[in-house]
Amino acid sequence: MLTVLPSLLFLAVLQSVPVVQPTAAACQDVQRIELSLVRGASQEICVSPGLLTGFVFDSRVTVDLEQELRFAEVIRGTTSFSVMPPGDGLAGERLRLTAHFSDGASVTFVLVFHSGLATRQVEVYRDKRTRESFQHEVTQAEARIQQLKRTTELLQHQLEQLRAECGDPRGLRRLIASSALDKGGLQAMAFSLKLIDQVKGALSLSHGVAYRSINRVALEVWVTNSSTEPWTISAASLVDAKGNSLKGIQFWQDSAFIPPGITRLVVVEADGGPELARREVTLSLQGAGAHGITLSKVALP
Fold first, then answer.
1. Which phi-psi region, left, alpha or beta, contains residue 163 (left: φ > 0; alpha: ψ -120 to 50)?
2. Distance CA 199, CA 222 (A)
3. Could you give the residue range(s) of every CATH 2.60.40.1860 domain in the chain?
4. Phi and psi dihedrals of 215, rounded to 5?
């Protein structure tokens, strides 16, 4: 066990944040490809175990899929083809999918495995795209813009709340006045992610530190956003080994959102007296969208 001065927790919140370069290519939800523009070059398509990716062509095709027997799901149609990658697929693995047209022409796609990232639909146009196709894309883009506006408003509201709650993060007066500290200060202990059941997906954690005062516990975690969209925490929970949720949950993020491919600090704290010492908890983080992450067996000091 390591005993630290109370101010160290706040210094950790204020320290500069390392930048992590993106490790995965940006994956579009809907990818539209005009073969007359790509000139026969192989097109990379994001796929992920457990997620279905569908191909839609503007003419009849037959499809050859490399290592097809490995795939969890393969659905063939006269002008469509859908695949669900195998569960044993590793991030970065690449397999070929070749579509043959009735006149003998063909096009090859490279399925690139990602963890939790997949293109939902691939629209392939051998001839020029129709007017209806462009109109549909415009409608989808307008819907995404509206969603981004709503997300921006939500983030702004959350940022204002965080600023009001945090006040001056350097101050100790609130901890002292609330009798949260004794002469021993804060107790802290780094936890190893190798010992934790980390659910793979669009988020991952690089490292973390657990803290405990007289009546509160806090987890400092560094979250990496591997998705293609900004991520911000919207909910959090801490559950003890008996399945009881800790009360008084509060969370803090050192920026309004975590951009794609970037690592940021998130702090989650809750009520927890001496009875929680040396126990383990499960941490869950949930974003405004579908992405979240859960870690079990996080040891408290």
1. alpha
2. 15
3. 30-119
4. -130, 15
Any idea how long the chain is? 301
Q: Please tell me the distance from the alpha carbon of residue 49 to that of residue 39, in angstroms, as a whole number.
A: 30
pLDDT above 70 as % of the chain = 69
SS3 of 27, please? coil
Q: Which CATH architecture has domain 30-119?
A: Sandwich (2.60)
Percentage of the chain exceeding pLDDT 90: 21
Question: What stretch(es) of the chain map to CATH 2.60.40.10?
Answer: 2-22+168-299
Calculate Rg over the CA atoms of the chain: 24
Cβ(114)–Cβ(50) under 8 Å?
A: no
Residue in the block written with tokens 């796609």: 109
Q: Are strands 292-299 and 250-253 parallel, antiparallel or unpaired?
A: unpaired
CATH architecture of 2-22+168-299: Sandwich (2.60)
Q: What are the φ/ψ torsions at residue 216 (nearest 5 degrees)? A: -140, 150
pLDDT of residue 121: 92
Which residues does 299 contact at the CB level (< 8 Å), separation at least 6?
A: 189, 191, 210, 278, 279, 280
Residue 19 CB partners (closer than 8 Å, separation 6+): 262, 263
pLDDT tens for 173-188 read 556 665 666 666 677 8
